[in-house]
Each structure stands twice: as C-alpha cells, then as structure tokens.
Specification:
104 residues; Arc Repressor Mutant, subunit A; 6 helices; 63% helix; HTH_ArsR_DNA-bd_dom; DNA binding; HTH_MetalResp_TranReg
Amino acid sequence: MKKILQEQVVAYKALNDVTRIKILQMLKLRSMYTNEILDEFNITQPTLSYHMKILSSANLVDTKKVGRNVYYCLNRKTINHLIDFLSQIVKVDGEQCKDLNCSK
C-alpha cells in the first residue's frame, strides 16, 4: 500500500506543471513523436526532454524508440488509477456527511 501511495504522489507531482498538463492533453488525442510535441510549444528540446522524463518516470506516458525518434503515448492505465484513487477519497458516507454538516 505504501508503495502504491508513493507512486501516486510522484504522478500527482508530475501534474503540477502547465506544460506537462498540455502535453497530456495532446497525447490523449493521439500518440506523438518528440518533434511533433516540440512543434506545439515554444520550448527547447532539452526542456521538453526534462518534462517527458518526469511524465515517463511517473508512468503517465509510455515511450517507444523508433529509429532515432521517441514516440510518446498516454498511459491510460495509470491515469485511470489516479482517477479511481481520487474518486475513493471524495466518496463520503451520507450519514457521516450529515453529521459533519459538510457538502456532498
């Protein structure tokens, strides 16, 4: 359980950047090569590599080397696990919520 929580912390930290969020939004539409992602941003190749390393280390994206190029795709399994985890956090027992006078 502790390992799973640590992996989720790494993933949520990776989401703490506008550029990385935008990259994930692009990859949800289709998998892309490094140069295709670069064309969409005003950043250098080393900066993109930095962001992709963080996303890859968090298992939010998968990579595939094709010749000299790197192909990136969204890791939907990891993202779905994060969504499920957050869903469990916000689920509240109706009686408990009523007792605490909190919103559902």
